Amino acid sequence: MLLSDVGATGFQFFALVPLILIFPLLGLLINIAFGSRMQEKQIGWVASGAVGLTFIISFLQLVSLGIHPEGTVIRLADWITIANLNLHWGIKVDTLSVTMMLVVSGVGFLIHVYAIAYMHDDVRINGDPSRYQRFFVFFNLFILAMMILVSADNYLMLFVGWEGVGLCSYLLIGFWYDKGKDGIGNALAGKKAFITNRIGDFGFLLAAFTIFGLFHSFEFDEIFPQIKQVATVLPYGILFITVFMLLGVTGKSAQLPLYVWLPDAMAGPTPVSALIHAATMVTAGVYLIARSYPFYAVMPEARTLVSWVGALTALFAATIAVGQFDIKKVLAYSTISQLGFMVTAVGMGAFTAGMFHLVTHAFFKALLFLSAGSVIQGVERGLHAQLHHKGGLQEDHHLDPQDMRNMGGLRTRMPTTFWVYLIGALALAGIVPLAGFWSKDEILLNASNIDKRIYWILAVAAFFTAFYMARQIFMVFFGEPRTDAVAHASESPQLMTIPLIVLAALAGFGGFLNLPHIETFGHWLEHTIEYKPLTVLGEEMPPFSLQVAGMSTLLALLGIGIGYWLYYILVQKSLRGEPQAYKDPLESALGPVFSVLNHKYWVDELYGVLVIHPYQALSQWLADVVDWRFWHDWFHDTVIAGTFKKGTKLLAVQIDLGIIDATANGLARLTNWSSGQLRRVQTGYVRNYAMAVFIGVVFILGYLIVILK
Amino acid sequence: MKWDDLFAILPLVVISTWAVVLVLVDIVIPRDRKGITAALAALGLIFALYFTLPQYNRHLVAFNGMVIVDGFSAFLNTLFLASGLLAIALAYGFLKRNNIDRSEYYTLMLFSISGMMLMGIAADLIIIFLALELLSIPLYVLAGFARPRLDSEEAALKYFILGAFSGGFVVYGVALVYGATGSTAIVEIIQAVVAGKAAMVLLTIGAALIMVGFGFKVAAVPFHMWTPDVYQGSPSPVTSFMAVGAKAAGFAALLRIFVSAFPYLSVSLVPILWLISALTMILGNIVAIAQNNIKRMLAYSSIAHAGYILMAVVTFGKGSAAIDAVSAALFYLLAYALTNFGAWSVVIALEKSEGRGLLLQDYAGLGKKYPAWAAAMTVFMLSFTGVPPTLGFLGKFYLFRSVLEGGFIGLAIIAVLTSLVSAYYYLRVVVIMYMQDGEPVVEGDIWLKVAAGATAVLVVVLSLFATPLLQWAAQATLQSGL
């Protein structure tokens, strides 16, 4: 639909949708151009304002969709026109894309506001305030790329956004590129994220090319109606597409086997972890599958594969989270685990449940990350205060402000942070009536009706989820402070706590978007996603099951209970007022098993041995032996250049110098000589000049007289 | 007299009236404020330009066939007026530095331009002669403008004596043509020939003598010998103006007369023109190699370029090929004019009093010390040589192509070979600038910088977007006047 048509038919808010790309673009341009002359607050508010306006535009789309739920496509420009490939830049406005727009811009806005205050301290802790401007430029760029991703009406434009968010992720993970382990750790983490994602992108591209090969189009609206027909003729073509798309998803959404980059990505500033590595970018894979649902709808085999990948990831990552001490690493593995829940859901065909969990997870995981950021800066402030207090360097100077073993007792020192953290943790653990309960329950309900094995895997993962969150809460907020720095910790400024409170409210009440039997969100998405999963018996999915809900609540409470017993009661008993002697009770109890979890099953090391080291050795061999010694030294230098040199020497000395040069030099010498001779004619006497004219005239007239008579 | 007649000569009226008034106004302008005169002269040129532009795509015969306005004349008159503007930009600072900032420079130049513009629209041999004198006499004076410097006075006198000498040939030729056809108007000459009433031998000899006269003006071999001495002796801004304006006016007359009035004489005259053109290209390019003074080198370079443009005149009897050749010649003149003014602006920037700073050796080290000036000079040298992406390349390309179209393959080969020779002395300047060490001193005022920068940019940029320019030149065709 053209812009002018939109105006005529009265969907006036749809016509505004290009602004969701323009506002972030403007924000980042303003900050690039004038940021160096603006104050920090101004930079931050320009960036936040841009995202806030984007949210308002997204909300207007919601209003228009209320009247016209079928949505529309706004074409902005022709992009590529080659032969029968005719691509345009178009924005798809439907219930699915607007859901994503609202999440990205809404949560994004809150995180931007939070970052105004957070980055103020962060750039000072890390000692380079000039990077404040850069942070918000990247942050706006991310929102722009994410908006392109979710608003695309074709796979190629989606890929532009997909790569754009990957770029921003890379830039922001390595934001403090000169920090980290050995001064290069953060840069390496960024590189790891980028390269791992390249593998997934390779899968995405193969899928996209296959789509174009089969359908001669990249546009959703042209592809989807043909899928059923193509699937009967070429089922393996569709299978190929779905499997390689899944590879892309495992990269972007950090699923087995490509999840390894996400924990390392915690090297980025905490708002980055919250926005990109928890709430929005990593869910792009889930969105991609939901968007491509017609492919998965006709391919049960692909669905099975996707749901198993998701379920195994959910359990695997949840167990690792139990053994982590870094406050952000726990949340990172939790994110991988929760993404596994979503992928399982969309894999089972429960697209609505998956998207619902995506939304609620965006609320409570952004909340948890931001609160963790608040905790970290609280500890930093404590460290700072303590240094001032005592003067001079202390043993705690090298204290890791993210290590939970150093914390404890922050409940009284950072009350607001504690309460919002608690709400986030309970929502994640799935305690009724918080957001996570409803969305997780819906996934479990679907799983129990489709595949019992997957259901039990997810249920165990849910148990671990509750347990590690309880462990974290008790380690961080309860008991006595285990270091002086934590004892001096203080609450974060309001600019940080207010977004936290808003997110806490969303995490608390977000579940009411899609209550059983009412299913506001489900009906909303039905306009876009027409597929509904069936039970194994081929019946329609029941809206609610007390058995499933009861079971998951029971598991969650069990996890919290064990956490309470281990990390509160046992710890209090064993320490007896000596907080410095803290040791993780689980570590002592499980011993080597805990070590396995703490070392993340040595997967990084395994990849190192299996892939990275052989690859590096191969590269080394190719570079040293094949390229340098064989190709360069022998083939190029000896064979080609040597022969060539001999040949040219023959040509140069014998033929060129002897014949050609001699002739050419002779000519040049002749030219120079005649130049000198002719110059002598120029005597400077007017009479000679006039004589030359006269002789010329005589010659001309003489010639004419000869030929005319 | 009709109003249309006035419209036809309106730019000319504007510029000559402006010049006369400027002479009077100049009396009240104080000696140390001659910049005002320069500005007023420039304003007059712009004003005349404003009246010239509406003459495109017009075809007017005025004053009973004495003048004709067509695309050809409009193109050339635009070129003359723009040259005037550049010549003012080049002169202003130079005259001041050399303590010769007399305002007569500007008024004389306006008079000379009025002569050139008259040449552009002239359609009668008498008017053509009148225009020739009108443009030449102020130039004689301008050549001696640096008096009491001896070389300047010598240049003026040489130019005057030889100019008068060759002017005599033009008058003699006109008289013979009149005797042969009974008229000096181009239209009536053609009619007389068509009616078979013309004495062809007399007419041919008359045409040949006219050719000699204008051959002098454009500096074609063997009528070129004044060129190096006059170019070297005249103040540099005058030289640059002379090298473009006088040459373009000479070609205007040659093309107008030969292509529209004498195409049937091609059998007897083409061999002569062919030889003159070939000799001019060969001699100009070869002797330029031996020069170590940049002004003399550019003088020979201008002789060589006259040889190239003469090739367009050689095709004058070839019908449609001649039309193409005229367009190609106009385009070449434009390219030459821009490149020439640019190169001279660099020369002026490096020139010191008493004629120092003009040796090629004085350009050593320019690339290091003044990269912008050196880059501009490199552009001009490449354009002169005919290397893409410059206007010089396109000019040569279209000109050589139209010569081939006319069937003069030998001439085209000579042109290409001599272009190759020209690379030797043009690129030598570049080599000296960038690869030899030296301590050049540049004294460029703002207008000089503007002129050099603008021409350098135009030479490159216009070559990249040359299509409108080519179309413009292609539309600037000669109208017969019938």
Describe this structure in words.
The complex is a heterodimer of chains A (709) and B (482). Chain A has 709 residues and is mainly α. Among the domains of chain A are: 367-533 and 541-598, no CATH class; 607-660. In chain A, 74% of the residues lie in helices and 3% in strands. Chain A has helices at residues 3-9, 19-34, 40-67, 95-125, 131-151, 155-173, 185-215, 220-223, 227-233, 235-252, 261-264, 270-279, 284-291, 293-297, 300-322, 327-348, 351-390, 410-413, 415-429, 435-450, 452-477, 484-487, 494-509, 520-526, 546-575, 585-590, 592-598, 603-681, 686-708, and strands spanning 72-82, 85-93. A two-stranded antiparallel ribbon of chain A has the order 1-2. In chain A, helix 3 (40-67) packs antiparallel against helix 4 and helix 4 (95-125) packs antiparallel against helix 5. The mean pLDDT of chain A is 87. Chain B contains 19 helices and two strands. Chain B has a two-stranded antiparallel sheet. With 482 residues, chain B is mainly α. Chain B has one domain (3-480). The two termini of chain B are 18 Å apart. The mean pLDDT of chain B is 90. The longest helix of chain B is centred in the middle third of the chain and has 32 residues, at 150-181. The interface between A and B is medium-sized, with 25 and 32 residues.
